[in-house]
Amino acid sequence: MGASIIAKGRYTYTHDVKKGPPEVIDVHHIMFARNGAGVVKFCGSAFLFTGICFLILLHLQGKPVTKVLWSFSLSVFFFRQMLRKQVEKGSVIILPAFGVQLETIYRSGRTVRHFVPIGKILKPVLNECVTPVTCYWSLSLILRGEEELLLVLKELYPPVSMLLPIWKALSAAIDNKERPDLQSDCDTR
């Protein structure tokens, strides 16, 4: 079992190879670390939002206690919605004979998994995404029968140095010439 770790900025990349029956399982994790300033900013914005809700509800008729309870309820609801969308960890699990499992773990504890069969993947690609404000890299899969690319890490934007080992591992799994579906494609031509 081999493992490697790369830490850069707020991202940490971990590569773990597990050997066992029936083959090698190649596991890649990218974790997003939150710093202390983010917690202070989050608490400050929660306090500000609660105050704004209270001021809006202040103009309505009713008891002050009801207004305070409504403002806290609204702020808790909106911040819970914000937390649901914050990604904590993205994983790519490569099973060369079967396919690739993509996992996204959110800060709320919710986990989203997507499995792509190995025969459906044509090629992994690294894309440089340029916007008027920023530039970042993303890893995508070109899928057989699909018009759009499938983003591997949908809501994480790690540096290209962390995406490169995942791209290489995906390319090696896809380019394996011993795959039966590639053999049958070559025989029919």
Automatic annotation (TrEMBL):
InterPro entries per record: PIG-H (IPR044215), PIGH-H_dom (IPR019328)
GO biological process assignments: GPI anchor biosynthetic process
Protein name: Phosphatidylinositol N-acetylglucosaminyltransferase subunit H conserved domain-containing protein
Alphabetized UniProt keyword annotations: Membrane, Transmembrane, Transmembrane helix
Similarity comment text for this entry: Belongs to the PIGH family.
Pathway field: Glycolipid biosynthesis; glycosylphosphatidylinositol-anchor biosynthesis
A Gene Ontology term for the protein's cellular component: glycosylphosphatidylinositol-N-acetylglucosaminyltransferase (GPI-GnT) complex
Domain Phosphatidylinositol N-acetylglucosaminyltransferase subunit H conserved, first and last residues per copy: 91-152
Residue spans crossing the bilayer: 39-58
Any one Pfam family match given in the protein's UniProt record, by short name: PIG-H
Superkingdom field: Eukaryota
